Amino acid sequence: MDSLITAAARALAAGDPLGALNRIALREDAPALALRGIAMAQLGELARARALLRSAARGFGARERVARARCVVAEAEIALAARELAWPARALDAARATLEARGDRPNAAHARLLAVRRLLLIGHLDAAERGLAALDPAPLAPAARTVFELATAGLAMRRLRIVAARSALRRAAGAAQRAAIPALAAEVESARRLLELPAARLIVRGAAEPIRLAAVAALLGSGALVVDACRHAVCAGDTRVGLATRPVLFALARALAEAWPGDVARGELIARVFRGRHADESHRARLRVEIGRLRAKLSPFAGLRATRDGFALQPHGGRPIAVLAPPVESAHGAVLALLADGEAWSSSALAIALGASQRSVQRALDALAAAGEVQAVGRGRARRWTTPPLPGLATMLLLSPSPAGA
Q1: CATH 1.10.8.100 fits 3-194, yes or no
Q2: How far apart are CA 184 and CA 166, in angstroms?
Q3: Are strands 321-325 and 225-228 parallel, antiparallel or unpaired?
Q4: What are the Cα distances from residue 358, in Å, to 226, 373, 402?
Q5: Distances in Å between the alpha carbon of 312 and those of 98, 249, 262, 263, 358?
Q6: Structure pTM?
Q7: CA 123 to chain centre
Q8: DSSP string, 51-107
Q9: Are 106 and 138 in contact (CB under 8 A)?
Q10: How far apart are the first and last CA of the chain?
Q11: What fold characterizes domain 333-389?
Q12: Beta bridge pairs of residue 345
């Protein structure tokens, strides 16, 4: 490797893409094309970066498997930055295996980190945790160590392990300082602020107040009966009943929890849950059926008591009841939560991350665009959706784990 290539690589490692381009901008050999692609990616020119990396991969010979694998890893990082979650993960796995077999441990570790970050985005938390556990952070360079600790903190925050998240962020800040790359330091600070922003609203006896992630974790660990409207579940201590696929039951549970210790009239339940303007006998019959189903679901930690006018929630052991509501109530809160990271997402990537059909996501985006909450950039397959981050709110609780990787 000649001196200009070496100098350009060092400039990129230090976060100086312009310094790298000053050395190799006019060269067309494969190593220079690869470094130019990485430099363009750091400058935000993702389409041009991808084209350069693909040209570099073609330029490397069949025997230069390590160099070609590095190009695959760099292209995977660009795809992640562009939120192209359908990018073939098998290609990244194959590149990582090649790098590990040839002894390129830093780039192999980087490939594994990219896979973990993708898993976090699509909510496969168990798989992401296994990927982090398989990676030894000790030999990582400061920049890669920062990314590792950010991924660790992100997983801990999604799991509501606040102490672990704070520790990981402290390590990330130290690694970013050693790397001396301003963009990394800014990313660490952005992640740190998530712990200090309101993440949900706590509703108890009709009064609501914003709370942070630490308070959410404390509430869920307190033994109180919590109706979690962020992840559509009812929790009490270590017992959790998921109602994400039973919206009627969850709506009933939330209405009863918000009214506790009082009851909710049958007519009010019908109007709120079934959207019926006038309660007739069919509504009352359906309400009785759904109340019976909810009673069976909540039997481990609460009962449902019929009153003269309606029904009341009665927790076992006299434990208190609280409702954990999203910081902003929206029919498309999960879509907004993903877009709140400030990146431009395609509708297909949003569908992958949410585990929903692309058509359903497109309808949600159209509704949000009509309300002025999101905006589209580009046309056709190049169309991307973005929105400014929700001001002063942490939307992480709106991103439910995927059923396949909870």
Answers
A1: no
A2: 17
A3: parallel
A4: 32, 19, 16
A5: 61, 14, 6, 4, 39
A6: 0.80
A7: 6
A8: HHHHHHHHHS-TT-HHHHHHHHHHHHHHHHHTT-TTS-HHHHHHHHHHHHHTT-HHH
A9: no
A10: 45
A11: Arc Repressor Mutant, subunit A (1.10.10)
A12: 385
**What's the token pair of residue 124?**
């496969």
Tokens standing for residue 331: 């029919």
Query: Backbone phi, then psi, for 324, in 5-degree steps?
Result: -105, 105
Tokens linked to 177: 């300082």
For CATH 1.25.40.10, list the domain ranges present in the chain. 3-194
CATH fold of 200-325 reads Arc Repressor Mutant, subunit A (1.10.10)
**Angle in degrees, CA 106, 4, 21, rounded to 5:** 85
pLDDT tens per residue, range 250-270 = 999 999 999 998 999 988 888
Phi/psi class of residue 117: alpha, beta or left (left: φ > 0; alpha: ψ in -120 to 50)?
alpha
- Cα–Cα dist 269/257, whole Å: 12
CATH 1.10.10.10 positions along the chain are 200-325, 333-389
Q: How far apart are CA 297 and CA 307, in angstroms?
A: 20
Write down how long the chain is: 406
Kindly report, residue by residue over 63-88, the tens digit of the pLDDT. 899 999 999 999 999 988 888 888 88
